[in-house]
Amino acid sequence: MTSALSTRRSTPPTGTGHVIAVDAMGGDHAPREIVRGAVRAVRTHGLHLVLVGRTAELTGLLAEEGAAGEIPVVHADDTLAMHEGALASWRRPRSSVAVACKLIRQGDAAALVSAGSTGGVVATSTVRLRTQPGVLRPALAVLFPTLPTPTVLLDAGANADAKPEMLVQFAHLGAAYAQTAHGVAEPRVGILTIGSEPGKGNKLARRAAELLTAAADTSPRLDFRGNIEGHDLLAGLVDVVVTDGFTGNVALKSVEGAVRFALEEVRTALTSSPVARAGALLQRRQLRGLRERVDSETYGGAVLLGLNGTVVIAHGASHAQGIERACLLAHELVTGRIIDQVRRRVATTTRAPAWLRLSPNEE
Amino acid sequence: MTSALSTRRSTPPTGTGHVIAVDAMGGDHAPREIVRGAVRAVRTHGLHLVLVGRTAELTGLLAEEGAAGEIPVVHADDTLAMHEGALASWRRPRSSVAVACKLIRQGDAAALVSAGSTGGVVATSTVRLRTQPGVLRPALAVLFPTLPTPTVLLDAGANADAKPEMLVQFAHLGAAYAQTAHGVAEPRVGILTIGSEPGKGNKLARRAAELLTAAADTSPRLDFRGNIEGHDLLAGLVDVVVTDGFTGNVALKSVEGAVRFALEEVRTALTSSPVARAGALLQRRQLRGLRERVDSETYGGAVLLGLNGTVVIAHGASHAQGIERACLLAHELVTGRIIDQVRRRVATTTRAPAWLRLSPNEE
């Protein structure tokens, strides 16, 4: 393990020098597709990666890809099983995710990319990287493929039960993400609720909307645009949508399921008669392009924001391309200094009540 | 008004004799499309309707449709505005919805069909029809177009903040709906949550899942199948999905928005090149059929369950066909005696704690 790290150190990265630790053992197609994606990320984009996992297996796979020695490997005995719950997984100190977090804590890496189970990666990295000073809870941010820039939805599942004050922080975390990754100078923020008029929603959403309205006038400014309904998630009305992790996860998966359902129905409709099938032949390229766009952008990866380190969670079913994309996203967030952006926003935000502060590293 | 009712009484309905009161003034295309839909429901299906609204206007429209005197009209001065909130609307005692509820209370009608604003119709009918004995809260049930039978989702928005005990009742309300409208002998029930393993979700969903598991062994039996995630809503894994009104509304609208988005993207993709356009011409019929199926079945109408009267809320944008369909649904529920089904299920259900009982008509 040490020797692998030394390898990396002996060839100092050109450019930014930010190293991304890639969990090679997490995901349905790990480790082969993870290694392939890492090689593509290095060769195509010049990223600086470390693969974390079982050394023997990974060096073998690198050799098979004709990339022996191109990416340093850090050994980890253990892996998080895809089905493992959060509690079980964060108790494994030698899992590839835990070892990757250790690299970040030591300053040997700036980001973690994993296609492992979301629950396991969230739990492990939250415990091992800890929240940034002042951050109440980390939030899982996902993207919807709106134009011209994607819409950030958070929390997509890290906190099933949230407090109104957390949603205000999520707004700042999401705004930092939209600024860093999508270049949106002043991100517009909405709250996911039911009904378009102010005062609509459940208790949590109503109180959070009040706090967000108040926060709009404080520094750092928040461009709060009010209520967003479920059918607006893909309409691009705002850049950031905040909600609790339960509602966010249900909304995300409802959108995913509905898009998949609709495309499947289209496929059936377009092949239901000889004439329609002839039409479908003429359109093969367009339909494939659409499916890829909706798939990759909606489900490409989630970012866990608010920790002392950048964490990108690729879809569990990721192949090489998904891993490559997740590495690129991690790289963008690191070079855009998202951690600093969050620190600046949260440090100047009105402090939450003491009883709400969860993390032991509150300063 | 009295004369109109007498007209109906002087020509006693053949068949079941269940009369449906149609709010002729609610909806984006009221009253013309409502009247048209009512005429179709009467002529095509032999339903027994009463139109409620401004008499002069409605008799004129009936004459224009060549249906003068075919449907009795009951006068109502007032209407609920589409944008009106729940509070404002239920204070209008002479609105067409309030008058329709009065007909139900008097025994002159068994059901109400309205395309008015959901909030207004829910609030008005809840106050005026009241909940059935033992029912904690009415729940809004919507359908997803799964095969072979639709999936019932409830609550879709009547109760933004719900208690776990309510979700157990929603399961019984939904099961009664699936039995009555879809002929499902033993409806399978799931709870909308995040994660597939037991114990996943927020506090409300976790506690409700415990209660549902316990309820599965009591009478009337509930075939509780555990957790349902957002992406399963259109998969037909269960017949009834229960959730609180906030989550249910977000999920419903997320699905609606995503299906609309996907079909729009398909349309764009299929017309993005001359070759693809040629293909699209060959498929016009199939695509139109698909759009209608997804639109009509998903968004056709919601049913407010648990009141002393059947309430069907058609989509605000309904044209004649949507109203006709809503009338048919109301007719099915009335002839299937859904009120009795709910009474039987709720009466034998373990009673909820006294502090949870909201309605003054608790017996």
From TrEMBL, chains A, B:
Top-rank taxon, per record: Bacteria
Pfam families registered for this protein in UniProt: FA_synthesis
EC number from the UniProt entry: 2.3.1.274
Predominant cellular place of this UniProt entry's protein: cytoplasm
Reactions catalysed, as given in the entry: a fatty acyl-[ACP] + phosphate = an acyl phosphate + holo-[ACP]
Keywords assigned: Acyltransferase, Cytoplasm, Lipid biosynthesis, Lipid metabolism, Phospholipid biosynthesis, Phospholipid metabolism, Transferase
Pathway the protein takes part in: Lipid metabolism; phospholipid metabolism
Enzyme class: transferase
Localization per record: Cytoplasm
Gene Ontology molecular function: phosphate:acyl-[acyl carrier protein] acyltransferase activity
Subunit structure as annotated in this protein's UniProt entry: Homodimer. Probably interacts with PlsY.
Cited function: Catalyzes the reversible formation of acyl-phosphate (acyl-PO(4)) from acyl-[acyl-carrier-protein] (acyl-ACP). This enzyme utilizes acyl-ACP as fatty acyl donor, but not acyl-CoA.
Family: Belongs to the PlsX family.
Protein name as annotated: Phosphate acyltransferase
Species assigned in the record: Marinactinospora rubrisoli
